[in-house]
Batch of 2 targets.
Target 1
Amino acid sequence: MSPNEEILQVPWLEPTMGTMSDTTFGIRQITFDCHDPSKLAEFWSAATGCGISADYGDFVMVDSTPALGFQRVEDPTPGKNRMHIDGGGVERETLVERLKGLGATELGTHEAPGLVWTVMQDPEGNEFCVGNPEA
């Protein structure tokens, strides 16, 4: 960072995550291409406990940090996701069951030293992982 670059304070960054300069790319929203933005936003709203902040019909936003956006597309990209969301809770097994009740599908559970995570899909097939608190 040059001496002339000003450090910006970004409220959603924890102090341990670092700071941002005016040339740093900050993630403010993750957007999903989907068939039914309202249905998928309702799932993620319930999963995260965050409300729906905007509904424009073909684009719906969930008020999480970062925000989640859901935009209608005729044909979402086929094949495996090239990126996914990792999340978790205090009780991974309980959270997995709750997410299944909301419409998610459990694909499998994996272990590594000090880490356990379950791979899941949301109602439109987007993969995400639910890890233990250390994840």
Note: Residues 113 and 134 are 11 Å apart (CA to CA).
Target 2
Amino acid sequence: MDLPEEIDAWVDALRGTFDVLEVSKPIPNRGDSRMVRVYVELRLRGPSCSPKPTASTATAAAPTEPDRLAAQLRRVNNVVGWARARITSLHNKRDKTPEPQKARRRECDVRAEEIQRLVDELDKALGGGERQ
């Protein structure tokens, strides 16, 4: 089997699953290699056209409430899993922080808590003054 026949055989095999849009000419490989490169542009075949469902089949195909809730729960679990992985990586990164930087962060956290406490007290004082 020579090269053009081999390329045609592979393209025919691809046509069983894909829509072959374009096939390039064989491009020789670099160096002393006897290999060639052939670029194939293809597209997945769309789903086969099926008849539109009737009213009786549409109600049977509609997901039930438990199925819908199970799918929603799977999506939520995917998000929760991602969030847990992200939190774990952040904790690992935090644990590798040098001690002086940790001390500075603790100091900033204490100051932020103090500021928040003062803001809460001010809100209470202003809120109480407006009511009177």
Note: The two ends are 98 Å apart (CA to CA).
